[in-house]
Structure formats: C-alpha cells, structure tokens
Write a structure and sequence with these properties.
Helices cover 38% and strands 18% of the residues. Strands 2-1-7-8-9-10 form a six-stranded parallel β-sheet, with helices on both faces. Helix 2 crosses helix 10, helix 6 crosses helix 9 and helix 7 crosses helix 8.
Length: 246
C-alpha cells in the first residue's frame, strides 16, 4: 500500500520523514507499505527553533491561518490537555479557538486541489498520513469528496488539527455537522499536546466503528520509543491487512 504523507505547518517533507521514521521502518520491514512525502505549496517560517536548527529551509504550510490575541486572552481555554480538569468538549474548545482564529478559505481550497493534483500525478495512493496541519488537510480533502480521492482506503492522523468546513472558515464539528469520514482511520494523540482538542474534534467526525485511537504520554509529536512504535505500527498494520490484496 502506498501512503501520501503530509507534514505539519512550518515544516517540510524531511521533517515528517524523521517524525514517523520509526513507525515507517517497522511497517516497511514486513508489509508492502510505501511512504511518499510531499511539501506544502506555501512557504512559511519554521514552526519551532528545533526545526530551524535541524532542517534546511524552505519550510512550508498547506493553508494560511492566524490567531489574534490568542496567547494572551485565550491560551488556557483552548490549549487543554487530557490531564486538565475541564468539562468542555473538544467541540467547545474548537468554537472558542474559532473566535480568535482566521483561516484563509482560498488557501484551504487551493490546498485540497493541490493534494488532488498530487494524487493524480504521483498516485495511485491507498492511504493518507497527516501530521498536525497535514492531518487537517487530509481530513478536509476527504470530506470534500473529491473524485480523485475515491481511491483512498484509510487515513492516519497524528497530532491532528481539526478538519476545515466547506466554506473554509472554521472547523467541522460533530455536534454541528453531519459530515463524517467513512473510511478506516487511525488517530494518534499526545496527552500533553496543547492542541489535543483539535485531534479529538477530528476523531469525533470519523466513523466510530472504523476509527482507532491511541494516546501516548507526550506532547505534539510521535515518540520513537519501542512501545509506542509497536502499538502505532500495529494499528496501521491492522488497517492495512484489511486491504492486503492491494
């Protein structure tokens, strides 16, 4: 199976290749998994100092979004981890974030078109792997039901941001929208990820019978330890086995 892999904002294909290296290696050893990495189409600044120090530019994102007065006014209500004593749902948190976040709808549409073009030109692909904004884009493109993506059989979402709605201005939320991702999905979240609620909002719009979820004890990353690698690779392998004839 071939997976199209989409990185997070302020990163690039090399960054994502490193982030999922342990799981990819585990799967490549005993399955037909092939991972194809593609850069976003919009240049941006590096997401973290570590990325800037470790990886050569340019760095990319798939769509533009900004947060206004977020850090000072809305940090605690939005950046909530599983360890927090909080009664808000993931959807509540995404609504709060939407109040201070601006998404460039045209760049979301352009990004979905970009992914469809990649699938057409460099496919076929059986699955999508997305990290952070890359996961958001993968989910958004799937929900837009583009004919080019009919070939996609499964998706792996790592530290995902929420999917973007059809008008490109806010998140798709389970308590507001009937839209659902119907293919099998694997969701990896971090208990200490400050953006965990976006991941959970995405999980909530996936088919509950076909969605599997694993939460590690760290932040906005995919740990390389053997235990996590074994679990995550096993979850992806289980999904792949359903399509072993491909």
């Amino acid at each position: 199976m071939r997976f199209l892999c989409l990185h997070g904002t302020g990163a690039n294909a090399d960054v994502l290749q490193t982030q999922i290296a342990a799981v990819a290696y585990d799967l490549e050893r005993d399955t037909k998994a092939i991972f194809h990495f593609v850069n976003g189409q919009l240049e941006t600044s590096p997401a973290t100092p570590t990325i800037a120090e470790t990886y050569d530019p340019p760095y990319y994102q798939y769509y533009n979004s900004t947060t206004v007065s977020y850090k000072e006014q809305h940090l605690s209500p939005v950046r909530v981890t599983s360890a927090s004593n909080d009664k808000w749902t993931a959807e509540d948190h995404m609504r709060k974030l939407s109040a201070v976040r601006s998404i460039d709808a045209k760049t979301v549409t352009d990004a979905c078109d970009f992914i469809c073009k990649i699938v057409e030109q460099e496919g076929p692909f059986d699955g999508l792997v997305g990290f952070s904004q890359g996961a958001s884009l993968a989910a958004t493109a799937l929900l837009r039901d583009a004919p080019q993506l009919k070939q996609i059989k499964c998706a792996v979402f790592i530290c995902a941001a929420a999917a973007i709605n059809s008008d490109g201005t806010g998140p798709v939320l389970a308590d507001e929208s009937p839209q659902r991702i119907k293919i099998p999905t694997v969701h990896i979240t971090g208990a200490l990820d400050p953006y965990r609620m976006g991941s959970m909002a995405l999980y909530n719009i996936c088919n509950g019978d076909k969605a599997t979820h694993f939460e590690h004890g760290k932040g906005h990353l995919l740990p390389w330890d053997k235990a996590t690698t074994k679990v995550v690779a096993g979850m992806v392998r289980e999904v792949m086995n359903k399509f072993s004839d491909t």
